[in-house]
Design brief:
This protein is of the alpha+beta class. It contains 11 helices and 5 strands, in the order αααααααααβαββαββ.
Length: 380
Amino acid sequence: MRDIARRGTRRGVGLLTGAATAAVEVPFTILAALVLALVAAWPTGRSAVLRPVLACARTMTELERARLKAWLGLRVPPAYEDVQALRYLSCRWALGVLGGVVMLSVATGLAYGTVWIYGWLLLDDVRSPWSLVFSSLGGLFLLFLATQGIGGVTELERQLARRLLGPRHEDELERRIAELSASRAAVVDAVHDERRRIERDLHDGVQQRLVALGMLIGRARRSQDTDRVDRLLRQAHEESRQALDELREVAWRIYPTTLDEAGLRAALETVAERAPVPVRVEYDLTEEPDQAVATVAYFVVCEAVTNAVKHAAPSRIAVAVGRDEGMVCVSVEDDGCGGANASGSGLFGLARRVAALDGILGVTSPPGGPTLVTAELPCA
């Protein structure tokens, strides 16, 4: 309920802001129409007249993009032409006026819907109590309709921006094909990188331990000194224990069984427990995400925490997982020395994992810190 109220409030503020911008877009549209008529009558000055108009249209459209993203949660791609911006503004002012009317209806319905409260409290003699009742009921009904109108105008804003500012259907298909081809290649590369990393971990860690274990056992078998045999066997026992620990570590990095058995939250808490520095986990998902999304989110957190501990020497790490407008948002922030290289092997591999799900990975790490790694993963 709190999320619904918060989302409704944000949309209401967005519509009020849109009504304010419509007050500027109406005269601009009229001015642009006069300019176009002037261009038709004076073709020699076409470029000189159109250039400032189109530049102004793009500036105003960028403000609309920021408004749509901040208050209505609508993401409009920036790849549009100036002519598209002009067409968008010439139509959008009508939705701004409509949004203002809807918000005025909300205020009116709220005022009439609560008239019985201050009517009974402030008025000493209520001559017609039924008029207060009917006014309140009418106000509540108007408030209900107006709140439904907020969602309708928001959807109209989304469709208008998508139709007039978005790419053509053919361009969208070509872009999608290119993205799928790139993500498929990224998945293949990520699998190869993971295989090479597993081979390197086994060769440099577990295999060396097993070789040392075999040498210790062989020396113990050839020795005739009882004390030396006991010492070698104790060393062999310690090597076997360390080999098992490293083998478990390799298996954990490949895929944690906790993710299947207890879910993403438990897996992230396990990462926090295994880290040598304090890690605070804020988990705000009410439902368990899809298996693919949960796996990528886990590896983002695990790799980011590992890189921070290895390279940044942080004193604390904060992990946050939540949902926003159909996206699972993951962030890992540390107070280390910063300077993380987004093109490094670890973060580059994470970027390919995230891109395979049509997600976005962001890395902000100025020298001196802090480092912030974010991932946005689409979730149904």
